[in-house]
Amino acid sequence: MTPTEYEYLRKFLRDHSGLDLSADKQYLIESRLLPLARKAGLSGIGELVQKLQGGSGALVTNVVEAMTTNETFFFRDKVPFDHFRDTIMPEVIKARAGRRSVRIWCAAGSTGQEPYSLAMCLKEMGAALTGWRVEIIATDLSQEVLEKAKSGVYSQFEVQRGLPIQMLVKYFKQTGETWQINPELRAMIQYRQLNLLHDFTQLGTFDVIFCRNVLIYFDQDTKINIFNRLARQIEPDGFLVLGAAETVVGLTDTFRPIPDRRGLYKPNDQRAVAAPRPAHASAPPRMAVMAGR
Amino acid sequence: MKTCLVVDDSSVVRKIARRILEGLEFEVTEAEDGSKALEICQWKLPDAVLLDWNMPVMDGFEFMGHMRRLPGGDQPKVVFCTTENNVAHIAQALSGGANEYIMKPFNKDIIADKFAQVGLIPVGQAFV
């Protein structure tokens, strides 16, 4: 996005919605408007700006809505978290019974709702994971959203999106008008700034990778490249979870869909040999050990 | 078509809630306090109740207690919708038989989310 395009969108949003973006919100614009542009059959932000300048009524509404709606919420789409609880974790618990550890990567951790939803799922499993080492690594392009995620502080509006009221009462503490997720859950997650276009082998190997609603920002070749590199970071019996509108089908044979489990994929056997798993001794010290209940 | 009883002493809130719920394909009836709501429930129980807490004559919590004791009164999904936004009230509502809890102000997304949460509408519908 050129500076001129960014300035145009800033003014456009100020005029149409009162939304006042600071000079450094390019990331927010791209993350919200690129999917919208692609959906409208446009090549990118540049063409979207041209259309807006040409005066397209329907697009104006869509752009304003996309920029002013809070897109990320707890247990987003629900189904992936049901799969996580009913399919993924039972299999992981069986397969890793020997070493009693599980590593999970949220590749688009954003403001934390997804990693915290996974943390809550794991806590709800209770005794089945007592004594297990659980590592959730959440990465995102934006340091700003990671800071928010790390704080675990959400507005009253945010905690009412996707989060069952029982979970709110159980896992959050109210402070005035905001709610903060409890320290035990916060300690389960490590945050790292990461661009998926760059090398991520240093993260090590994972049992589960959630990579939802982020590949939609990339073109086909980049998607293929990322899938192939993800395949090297996943255990041979691990799971990849994609967003509802995403798939590997027709792009790569490094993963295969699991029948009747929408959004769930397994690595294929012919993939490259996975990078060695880092020894636990050298792993970051903030790894949480699940306490008994 | 599923039915929802909207109980709130503010006619503005009832109107907003009605518009949202009709958008989610509910047949909506309204009551301005717990006592009027109970009369409606004695006649016919709805599938869902969107329930304010503080109202004249009979408050939402007392209404819920009476309704739950009606024959079949365990069936309706009760979603509180109130300015009472502290944990004590939420806990009291849940232990008194509420299924979900909305802290005002609310909007379409929150209602759709909470109704999906308790199975009143399919999950996907909340995200359209």
Quickly describe the structure.
The complex is a heterodimer of chains A (293) and B (128). With 293 residues, chain A is of the alpha/beta class. Chain A is 39% helix and 18% strand.
Description:
The complex is a heterodimer of chains A (293) and B (128). Chain A is an alpha/beta fold and 293 residues long. Chain A folds into 2 domains: 3-68, Chemotaxis Receptor Methyltransferase Cher, domain 1 (Orthogonal Bundle); 79-289, 3-Layer(aba) Sandwich (Rossmann fold), CATH 3.40.50.150. Helices cover 39% and strands 18% of the residues of chain A. Chain A has helices spanning 3-17, 26-39, 45-53, 57-68, 79-95, 113-125, 143-151, 165-171, 183-186, 220-232; strands at residues 101-106, 133-140, 153-155, 172-175, 178-181, 189-193, 206-211, 234-242, 255-257, 264-267, 288-289. In chain A, the strands form 2 sheets. In chain A, strands 1, 2, 6, 7, 8, 9, 10 and 11 form an 8-stranded mixed beta sheet that branches. Chain A has a 3-stranded antiparallel beta sheet with strand order 3-5-4. In chain A, α2 crosses α4. Chain A is globular and about 60 Å long. Chain A starts with a helix and ends with a strand. Residues 271-276 and 281-285 of chain A have low confidence and may be disordered. With 128 residues, chain B is an alpha/beta fold. Chain B has a single domain, classed as Response regulator (Rossmann fold, 3-Layer(aba) Sandwich). Helices cover 40% and strands 20% of the residues of chain B. Chain B has 5 helices and 5 strands, in the order βαβαβαβαβα. Chain B has a 5-stranded parallel beta sheet, with helices on both faces. In chain B, α1 (11-23) links the parallel β1 and β2 (26-31). In chain B, α2 (34-43) runs parallel beside α3 (60-68). The interface between A and B is medium-sized, with 16 and 19 residues.
